[in-house]
Amino acid sequence: MKLFSIPAVKRKLTSVVLGIGFGFLCAFFATSSQTGVAFWWTTSMWGIVFNRFLIGIVIFFAGCWIRCPLTHLPVKWWFRGPILGALVSVDLAIWNLYAPLPADKLMWIFWMTILMGAIYGFFIDLAATKIGGEGRKFSESLEK
Question: Cα–Cα–Cα angle for 45, 119, 87, nearest 5°?
Fold first, then answer.
């Protein structure tokens, strides 16, 4: 069996590559409003990249989650991705509150970090579900 024909491998590669890509995109957005500040290759930049990478990993594993354990209602990818992306982004958003900026700008950065995490989660889960699948097909390929 070819390695790249396994749904879990396809979902993992898609999630991780998009997570890292969105991490660098988010780091670029973080520097777009700063002039003369050394940001690239600092711990702040790597924190942003790692957080977005973590969204990809969480969404990879969430491919098994297709039913709510409490209500047994189906959980669609367009709901699961943004929710998980926003939840994973909360820690990065909280750390952003420690920046030496005015309070109104800090709150804008806080909410934009969570919103962008939800948007990235949407696109990561969309691509991972379309390319690697979800549910039974995905979880059975994890056992192989």
Answer: 75
Rounded CA separation 26/21 (Å):
9
State which residues form the domain around 111: 3-31+38-142
Among the residues of the chain, which ranges form H helices?
7-32, 43-61, 77-96, 103-132, 135-142
141: pLDDT strictly greater than 80: no
Of the pLDDT bands very low, low, confident and very high (cuts 50, 70, 90), residue 34 is low
User: Which residue matches tokens 């959980």?
Assistant: 75
Provide the residue type at 8 as one letter: A
Q: What is the CA radius of gyration of the chain?
A: 17
pLDDT computed for residue 52 by the predictor: 95
Measured over all CA atoms, what is the biggest interatomic distance in the chain, rounded to whole angstroms? Answer: 57
pTM: 0.87
pLDDT digits (tens, 9 = 90+) for 87-103: 999 999 998 888 777 88
Per the CB < 8 A criterion, the answer to whether 88 and 54 are in contact is: yes
State residue 136's pLDDT score: 73
Q: How many domains does the chain have?
A: 1
Q: Both tokens of residue 50?
A: 């790692």
